[in-house]
Amino acid sequence: MKKHIIIVDDEPSIRELCKELLEDEGYKVTVAVDGQDCLDKMDVEVFDLFLTDMAMPRIGGLELMKMIKEKQPLAVIVILTGFSSVEGAVKAVHAGAFQYLSKPINAEELFSVVKAGLQYSEDLYGPLQKAFEPASESVHKGEPIILHDFTPEQKIDFMDLGITKQYEEGDAIKIADGSVGSIIIVESGEISMWLNNTTVDYLQKWDTFGEESFIKAATSFITLRAETQVKVKHFERKKILDFFVYKGEKLMKRFMINLVNSMFFKWRKSMQRIVMLKLMTGEND
Questions:
Q1: DSSP β-ladder status, 191-195 and 223-226
Q2: Cα–Cα separations (whole angstroms), residue 109 to 18, 101, 243
Q3: Cα separation of 236 and 255, whole Å?
Q4: What's the CA gap between 158 and 151, in Å, rounded?
Q5: Using one digit for the tens of pLDDT, what is the confidence trace for 33-51?
Q6: CATH number at 137-281
Q7: Mean residue pLDDT across the chain
C-alpha cells in the first residue's frame, strides 16, 4: 500500500511543487488549502505523514499541529517554514513536530525528511500492527480465501465464470448491475471501502467483497472506489450457484465455509484496528 501524505499550504505553487515531487517518488499525495481543509480531510482519509505550512489563514501551523494530534495522537508532522519563521518552526518541533523544512523547498532535503518521517511513523505503528497481525491469513496469500482447498482445476473453472473489468483511480466500482448477491475478486491494484463517507477498509490483490450479500442475497451499503488503477473480476450470484449445481454439493459446502472464513478475517481485522486505536489513544471501555 502506498504511503499517504497530506500537504497543507495556502500557497498553490508550494502545494503543487511538493505534490509533484512526492508523487514522482511513488507516494500517494493529498493537498489541503489550509488547516481547516486538512482537518476536514482527516474525517474521511487516513494519512501517514503531514507536511504543513506555519503561517496560514484561519488556523496557523502550531494550532493545526495540536488539532491534528487530538485527532491522531501519533501523527508525524513536518513543518514548512520561510526564513523569517524558523524560530516558530523550532518551537513546533519542541511541541511535537517531527522536523521542519525551510522554503524554498530543496527536493533532496524534502525526500530525506519525508523518508525519515515515514520510517518514524512505521516505528510507532509497526509494533502494534504486528502484535495484532492474524498469522493464519498468510496461509491464503497468493489465492482468494473463498477458493481455499479447491483443486487447481476447480479454481480455474471458477475464475472463468467471472468478467474482468479495469478501473482508473477515483472510479466508483459497482458490484454488479442490478444483480444482488454478486461477488468480486481484486486481481490487481487497491480499492477503498466506504460507509457514510468514511473509509472503513481497503481491498488488495486476491481480496474479495460481497460474501455477506451472497449468503443473504441482500444489498450491501458499502461503496467501493479505486485508489489506483485496478482490475476486478465480477461474479454473478446465479452463475456461481449454477457452477456448484454442476460441481456438486460437497464443493458448494466448502465454498460457503470459505465465505464465512473470509468474513471472519475481515471482522477480526476491524476489531484489531479498534483495539490498536484504543491502545494508541489511551482510551478505556
A1: antiparallel
A2: 12, 8, 57
A3: 15
A4: 10
A5: 999 999 999 888 889 999 9
A6: 2.60.120.10
A7: 82
User: Where are the domains positioned within the chain?
Assistant: 4-131, 137-281
Mean pLDDT, residues 105-134: 75
Cell of 230: 485496478
What b/e readout covers 181-195, taking b as 16+ CB neighbours within 10 angstroms? bbbbbbbebbbbbbe
pLDDT (tens digit per residue) in 243-283: 999 999 999 999 998 888 888 777 766 665 555 555 555 55
Please tell me whether the overall predicted TM-score, pTM, comes out greater than 0.70 for this model: no
Do residues 78 and 114 make contact, with C-beta atoms less than 8 angstroms apart? yes
Q: Is cis: bond before 127, omega within 30 of 0? A: no
Closest residue by Cα to residue 102 from 115, 117, 116, 88: 88
Fold of 4-131: Rossmann fold (3.40.50)
Write the pLDDT tens digit of every residue in 206-220. Answer: 999 988 888 876 666
Rounded to 5°, angle at Cα 108 from 33 and 75: 50
